[in-house]
Amino acid sequence: MDDQQREDRPQEHESHAPQPEGQQPEDHELTIESPQQYKALSHPLRQRLLLALGGQPATVGRLAALLDSRKGTVAHHLKVLQEAGVVRIVETRKVRGGSEHLYQRTTRRIAVTERGAGRDAGPTTALLKAVAEECANAPQEPVLVLRHLRLTADQAARLGATLQALVAEAAEAPPGEPVHGVLVALYEQAAGRDD
User: Fold this and answer.
1) Chain mean pLDDT for the chain
2) How far is residue 98's CA from residue 84's CA, in Å, rounded to a whole number?
3) Interval 119-153: pLDDT, tens
4) DSSP secondary structure of 11-61
5) What DSSP letter does each residue of 70-107 carry, written as one string?
6) d(Cα 138, Cα 148) in Å, to the nearest integer?
7) Whole-model pTM over 0.85
8) Which of 17, 105, 122, 146 has the highest Cβ tally under 10 A?
9) Handedness of CA 25, 180, 48, 101 (dihedral sign)
């Protein structure tokens, strides 16, 4: 074993929480409601961190390398997400000179609504920018469809329920398979936009 491998290898493991390593995020939907959560999600790097944590837990170092960012910057943004209840530490490892945390999203699905956020579309804008960056870097051509439909309130409600059910019922492949992002949006256009 060379010095670099020895340095990167954890020397001891201690569990930070009573969850086994590699446990998946909880299988319910987290609805973003508090001002602290909206603020946490309003930064594009924090959106990218959430997307990167969609597959499996990761360390600050791994996330920094993946997102081409500095470890200190990633650690700061993870702390903000953790304080907002969107990310948690699932394991702490003793490594040479300190501790290393494995971070994970608290839930698989996160719903962002603009209710309660006033007119601030920051979280949605940041989310769409992060998804656009992921699509631009995807190894295969992404499926991206925008269609405008005239719908009654009942039709819109049924379509929304169908889309949510489709995503909720999607079966996941075993670990090791590529992670795919799924973004579902149904919204009513602002008044005066009848094009």
Assistant:
1) 77
2) 25
3) 566 667 777 777 787 788 788 898 888 888 999 99
4) SEEE-SSSS-TTPPPEEEEEEE-SHHHHHHHTSHHHHHHHHHTTSS-B-HH
5) -HHHHHHHHHHHHHTTSEEEEEEEEETTEEEEEEEESE
6) 25
7) no
8) 105
9) positive
